[in-house]
Amino acid sequence: MMIRDEREEGDFVFSFVTSLFVENFSVKVSLRYNIN
To answer: How far apart are CA 34 and CA 1, in angstroms?
Structure first.
């Protein structure tokens, strides 16, 4: 494994978690609007 900058890895993890959260949030919102 290559040793990378911690900040770079943190940014990757942050962007990954953010994308998952946004995807989950958009799915919940669309489901709510479809039900109502």
So the answer is: 46
Give the DSSP H/E element, type plus range, for residue 10.
helix 6-35
How much is the pTM? 0.52
Q: Apex CA 22: angle with CA 8 and CA 14, to 5°?
A: 15
Q: Helix, strand, or coil here: 31?
A: helix
Residue type at 24 in one-letter notation: N
Helix (H) or strand (E) holding 15: helix 6-35
Segment 14-24 mean pLDDT: 94
